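Lay summary. Proteins are chains of building blocks that fold into shapes, and those shapes determine what they do. In this project we predict the shape from the chain. Here is one chain we studied, written as its sequence of building blocks.
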Amino acid sequence: MADDHVRCTYNDVHKLIAKASERIQSEFKPDVIVAIGGGGFFPARVMRTFLKDPSTKRNIPIQAIGLSLYESLPDTTEEQLGNMVVRTQWLGPPNNLLGRRALIVDEVDDSRTTLHYAVTELKKDVEMALLDLPESQRDAARTKFAIFVVHNKLKPKSGALPSDIPYYAGAEVDDVWLDYPWEMKDIDEHDRLAALAQK
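And here is the predicted shape, written in a compact code that computers can read:
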């Protein structure tokens, strides 16, 4: 079955995350993960395994935000699909992120629209929460952000990311259609097709 899909297996994704986590741990040292749902949930959970503090054996907490760009949701219009980010779930009080080193995780950086939205809105929330602190404490409490995606598509992006935010990708790929295992109903067929493509 020849098509233009690239099928990623759980093992493929796991290994990309394992490799990237070493660099993330040495350069950024996150103490909280912000998963962008739905695609960022599985990668965030795997990333947490590799970022566990070896001295304390403590897991890094995962916070979740729900953003949708391509998914048809109640009250979304045809014009919004693929063009407008819809917020379906957000963090609680933004002061939960103050003073933290937050790693934002998603499965793929395609148009960069979702990542741009997430970073912009999270930074805005943090800046609002900082206003509740005395000015002398704000710099120390300012959240530091970094981004991890399993795959970065090598193509022009619609959104931009601040240059001061570290960016990590498990792999750089051409502009191809990526099928992730957590999207599949028939995982055996997905894995069979992925194996065939490797031959």
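What the prediction tells us: The mean pLDDT is 90.
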